[in-house]
Amino acid sequence: MPAKTSFETSSLVIALRDQGFTYPKISESLASQGFSLSRRTVLKICQEKEKERNGWTNLAKRLPPQNLPSACTQDNVNKVKKAVVKKNPDSLQKIAKKLQVSIRSVGRMIHQNLGLEVRKKRKLHDLTEAQKKQRYERGKLFISYLGPFKVRHIFTMDETWISLDDCNVDTDHFWTDGSAEIPEEWKKKTTKRWPKKVMIAIGICWFGMSRAYVVNGSAKALREFGERCHLPHGQCSISHGQADHPAPQRSSCQVYSEGDLDGEQP
User: Fold this and answer.
1) What does 146-215 look like in DSSP terms, one character per residue?
2) Are 133 and 246 in a shared domain?
3) Which of 86, 104, 169, 186 is the most buried (most CB within 10 A)?
4) Which Gene3D superfamilies would you find in this protein's record (predicted)?
5) pLDDT tens digits, residue range 77-131?
């Protein structure tokens, strides 16, 4: 931080300014007398004096409350530990509102006082024996299409579930310090008995991606309809329309009849 200009130097600057000297002339005059003062400092001194003559005063700085007790007390640390060391931990916002502290203080207690780290829960994808056999058989057919020219005309269609029941207490993470033993059920996402879901079917190939089709909930699997189902929807949905004869490649998804696919985006 630069040293503050003395009262004598400031008075000399104001006196020269009252005599009609410009800011550069004031700086040059002070330099000839042995005072090294930049033009910017001269301008600042003159502006402050002008404000003082006009009755302008700077507002006092509003400082936040000082010397407050620390929020990271042992009692709060224990409460935070109880709220986060469980299968579905509370959010930082909820804990901060409950303890009447800041979110930053809650995070400091979690990381510094408790030494915890966040971990994502995993979603298991177990395949049945029939699904494994299906992937093994169709994988060879898919590899045969991987040529320099045929690969662009492969049209793959698959479906996925979109869950509509996300407003629950089941979180996607948990906290651990790396040393304590974590139960296996903490690491897995809960599978509900009657989840509210919507099935969406989407196709993709070299030339683009098809729009999403909402599969009717009462749809039945019709494997013989595969060639007739994938190809028309794929050709009419490609963004650039350059695939004349895309080769339909079925994955593990079921094939549905034409009336079971709604050609509307969800």
Assistant:
1) -STTGGGGEEEEEEEEEES---SS--SEEEE-SSSPPPGGGGBPPPPSS--EEEEEEEEETTEEPPPEEE
2) yes
3) 186
4) Ribonuclease H-like superfamily/Ribonuclease H
5) 999 999 998 888 888 999 999 999 999 999 999 999 989 988 888 766 677 888 8
- In this structure, what are the phi and psi dihedrals at residue 157, rounded to the nearest 5 degrees? -125, 135
In a domain? residue 142: yes
Q: Which residues contact 234 (CB under 8 A, 6 or more apart)?
A: 155, 157, 203, 205, 210, 243, 246, 248
Mean pLDDT along residues 178-189:
76
Is residue 258 located within the same domain as residue 202? yes
| Cα 156-157-163 angle, rounded to 5 deg | 140
Structure tokens at 260: 């079971």
CA angle in degrees (0–180, nearest 5) for 85-91-92? 95
Does residue 97 form part of some domain? Answer: yes
182: closest CA among 77, 76, 84? 84
Rounded to 5°, the CA angle 219-224-230 comes to 75
Residues in the chain: 266
Claim: this prediction has a pTM higher than 0.70 = no
User: Rounded CA gap, 239 and 250, in Å?
Assistant: 20
Domain membership of residue 81 as a residue range: 74-115
Q: Which two tokens stand for residue 74?
A: 């042992």
- Of the candidates 46, 52, 116, the one whose C-alpha atom is nearest the C-alpha of residue 81 is 116
* Cβ neighbours, 10 Å, residue 214: 17
Give the Cβ contact number of residue 24 at 10 Å.
10
How many domains are contained in the chain?
A: 3
Q: Using alpha carbons only, what angle is made at residue 15 by residues 12 and 17, rounded to the nearest 5 degrees?
A: 110
12 and 93 co-located in one domain: no
